[in-house]
Amino acid sequence: MKHKSKVVACLNCRRAKTRCEMVSEDGCHRCRVLRISCSRSTNAVRTSQKSKSQSVEEISVELDMLLQSFLFVPPESEELYDSGSILDIEALPVRIQDWFQSYNRGNWSCDGEGEELQAETPKPDWYTPLAYIRTLFPSATRKTDFSGTSVAAPMPVEDILSREQISLLLDSFVRRHGPWLGFKASIHHPLLSLVCCAVVASCDRQACTLPSATYEKLRATTIHTINILLANPGSFPASEALQALLITALWPAGLLSTPRALIRCAIELARVQGLEEVFEAEHSMNEKACLWVSLINADIITSVESRTPPLLDANHHGLFSPPATSIMPADINVGQDERLKLLLAVSFLTARALKVMPPPNDVAGVDWWYKERREVMRDWKDLERVIDGLTALVSDPNERTPFCTLNMLARSCHLMVYHDVLYIARKIYELNPHPDPNYPYWVLHVQNKHFSAITIGWMKDSRALSEEILINSAELDTGVLLAAPEYVFLHLGYVATHVLGMQLQFMSTLNAVPAGLGLELMDKMVEKLQNDIQDHPARKCSHFISGLLTLWRQRKVLMQRS
């Protein structure tokens, strides 16, 4: 009895239903041309003998699950794929870095004799995306010198500005910067008047028509005063000094560039005042408690950038830990306390999520990590539901804007958690006995099939969430958005990077452009963030997102062989 001959072909050729011709031990002809891993190569055969892989049918079923919720539009030009080259996922961050180093010449130094450029930007580290994006932002045109701090008494703001100018700047601070604060600043105190006027002058030139010489004098006086405060915190009233440090840490544009040092000094002043002792876990908080919670929030949010532990002890953060439904207010129109508690929940949940790492080479530890991540994601859903409900129910337009800003920040922190779990899931895959870093569908080969489905769901949700953030930002009043603290623009730059990264990843692995409005929303944000103020973080963010869009327009270069 004759047996039917078995056709031998690699997995890629079987999937494409094409001829599979072996030309060397490295794989078949088609896989070598496409520069993808071939299952018939000598290395792949040895690997398959040691560890059983999924069948073609299993991979096809899981791939269908991955794609069933995505709609694709044809690429603009078929010429993008004439070379048959596929861009490796892991190469994307490096190529993005290389391109930005040539785009943003502020981070480069040029040899006078030749055309060779030498990079000064550090190696990309997407484990800390906010810190790395800061290095890709255009460099500041002004450099603050902290050496030689004088101990002379600072000049009062009345000696620099007229009463009308001071009143105009302080009113602008309350109206535009106030929604981003969680406490009522004592703006008429001499120290805070100086700081608030300097912040508005550096962020809002429409409200401030100061001559250039006057602005430089105001800026220099503010820097000098803050340096005196850092050197001798007891030289000013403790409460006003604490508020001044916190405001300067949130809006360092054109003033200072070390928010962590400012927050550290503010924490010392807060402990001298005993703020942590008067902090009450109730819906109605006094002014000192509001200031203490605002300090905790600033501490956590700024520590997230570099993934460093918060300066304050963690047990202070657990008072309003999830579930967020426990902080639903009794009176919807009492807004500031609820915003503070919700922001504290956002900060706490972000810090808690980013500090949990799976034990290396421990299957049980990986199981625990995935379970913990799923619980965190459920907490985020509950928290966002509460914030959305409060935003919809607030009747006062002036109170609605702060909830909208809180909504945007909460979703951005949520996206950072998605980024973190996807980043670590990739690292878990690389710890497998025989990982293939060039395999485009690596997510299907995470150790546990159940975890693969979870990771795929995270990828889908993160893409939708990134577009939601851009929509919320585009709907926010331009004046309020431009008055946002510096960290908000780092988050917006990260959101845009995530959108572009997903576009490039789908184009790389599936040769298709995913349908969506992410790129159009990025273009809208470039227009919305544009302003004429040098060193304004919104202007830097606009420049950065514009560079991302230019990178997308030049994507044909990325798809060509090296």
From TrEMBL:
InterPro entries: prtT, Zn2-C6_fun-type_DNA-bd_sf, Zn2Cys6_DnaBD. Coiled coil: none annotated. The keyword Nucleus applies. GO terms for cellular component: nucleus. SUPFAM superfamilies: Zn2/Cys6 DNA-binding domain. It is found in: Nucleus. Pfam families: Zn_clus. The keyword DNA-binding applies. Keywords: DNA-binding, Nucleus, Transcription, Transcription regulation. GO terms for molecular function: DNA-binding transcription factor activity, RNA polymerase II-specific; transcription cis-regulatory region binding; zinc ion binding. Residues 9-40 form the Zn(2)-C6 fungal-type domain. This is Zn(2)-C6 fungal-type domain-containing protein.
